[in-house]
Amino acid sequence: MTAQQIISELEALGTDMMKKRYIGRGAKEPLFGVATGSMKPLFKKIKLNHALAEELYSTGNYDLMYFAGMIADPDIMGPADFNRWMESAYFPMLSDFVVAVTLSESPCAMDVADDWLNSDKELYRSAAWSAYQWLFGWRPDDYFQQGKIAALLGRAESTIGSETKHLQGVINDFAAAVGISYLPLYKEALEAAVNLGLPAEKTIQKASEKGRLGFKRKAVRC
Q1: Grouped pLDDT means (10 residues each) for the chain, 222 residues
Q2: H-helix segments, the chain
């Protein structure tokens, strides 16, 4: 399929209701208002096609940028590519659910995320914490260095109070992901959530009650 054929198919799937919902969350024109689930049949036809992903992402259309994240090939994307994508990620639904999700399946994920954690730009830090959250949910525990993750958890505890409401929510999700999906630091993540009064405490405890500690996906994206 060509980029124009994809654009035409996605445009036909857009609804005013979803468009208003996305705009309410920070999206701006151009966009079609396509529900994520409605994109899956088209994704199954195309699967990975990085050239098309780059072409669609460059349009600035939120729906096309989201679909670009679904068909991108993170194995061939390097730090410069992810930085370029972040330059266009103007609100959290792009930074945290397109760029960060795609990054989390890349071999350079932690290097890029570590760099973004030191950024003075909120969305870069948001994408970094989000990328780690997605990483815990699918990489095996031995993929990570426990000392490094412990240091990140400590950093989350020490910085959350000075962050925006949005970033506080993202850091809460990070703590929950550590507690649920990275068993070596389950107790430490739960303790941090309790000490900070985070909703992550209940999230971790609920996962424990349901026997879901250690949960891993096969992959982050579809």
Answers
A1: 96 98 98 97 95 98 98 98 98 98 98 98 98 97 98 96 96 97 97 94 96 93 74
A2: 3-13, 16-24, 36-46, 50-57, 62-71, 79-88, 92-94, 100-104, 109-117, 122-136, 146-159, 165-181, 186-196, 200-209
